[in-house]
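ok, trying the design again with the full structure, not the truncated one.
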């Protein structure tokens, strides 16, 4: 791996290990609460308020569950964002490339692993910005901090989890550590996401999304979902919009 801002990375991530050992986390970008079984790919199509305009997103995984790529399409079928992750022969996450075609830019990140501290650091080759992700001993994502190339904080976020590791709360903070918004999660008995309550602190607004699962497959993954979002006011809740989602899931052979 090329030399990565030596001073910054040596200060943040001592005792680096790379080629010999894999940082055994629950896959950096995989939504553990949302996928079950040996998933190979997930194509999600969705539309708002019964509109004919449909959007798409596809996730592709290797047999170990590592996220290989994420592709997003707009309502006209044009790719707006394409992300690829690269892993070495030992299964270590080593690089990420993001093509933001909607904004016309490409970002490439190198990756450094700190095994004892259970951290993954991504450094943007273009801007020098660094994102550091911390994982629990049970291999679940706990915290992220972002900073510029001069080590100035940009933002951070953190998860709270139940004993079974399901997320109960997500907090996103600004560069001063002030909470910008908070998301509270509720789950069904089948471990599907039932509710999301979002509180925007600056705007002083709250929104609630309730998910109704219309179909699931043999692995317990949902294939059709109706998500209804409400604005919460003192007088009650007012419907904002609804979103219909359909997923086509392909699995790796056992």
């Amino acid at each position: 791996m090329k030399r990565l801002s030596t001073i910054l990375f040596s200060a943040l991530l001592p005792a680096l290990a790379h080629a010999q050992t894999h940082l055994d986390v629950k896959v950096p970008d995989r939504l553990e609460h949302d996928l079950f079984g040996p998933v190979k790919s997930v194509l999600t199509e969705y539309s708002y308020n019964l509109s004919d305009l449909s959007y798409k997103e596809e996730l592709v995984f290797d047999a170990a569950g590592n996220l290989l790529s994420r592709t997003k399409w707009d309502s006209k079928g044009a790719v707006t964002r394409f992300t690829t992750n690269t892993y070495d022969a030992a299964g270590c996450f080593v690089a990420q490339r993001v093509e933001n075609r909607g904004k016309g830019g490409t970002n490439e990140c190198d990756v450094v692993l700190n095994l004892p501290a259970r951290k993954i650091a991504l450094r943007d080759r273009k801007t020098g910005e660094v994102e550091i992700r911390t994982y629990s001993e049970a291999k679940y994502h706990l915290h992220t901090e972002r900073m510029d190339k001069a080590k100035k904080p940009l933002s951070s976020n953190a998860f709270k989890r139940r004993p079974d590791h399901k997320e109960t709360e997500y907090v996103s903070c600004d560069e001063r550590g002030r909470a910008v918004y908070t998301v509270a999660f509720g789950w069904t008995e089948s471990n599907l996401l039932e509710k999301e309550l979002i509180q925007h602190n600056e705007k002083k607004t709250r929104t609630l999304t309730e998910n109704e699962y219309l179909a699931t497959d043999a692995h317990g993954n949902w294939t059709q979902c109706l998500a209804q979002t409400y604005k919460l006011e003192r007088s009650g809740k007012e419907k904002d919009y609804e979103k219909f989602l359909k997923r086509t899931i392909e699995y790796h052979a056992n």
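Keeping the full-length input from now on. Confidence is low (pLDDT under 50) at residues 1-22, 26-31.
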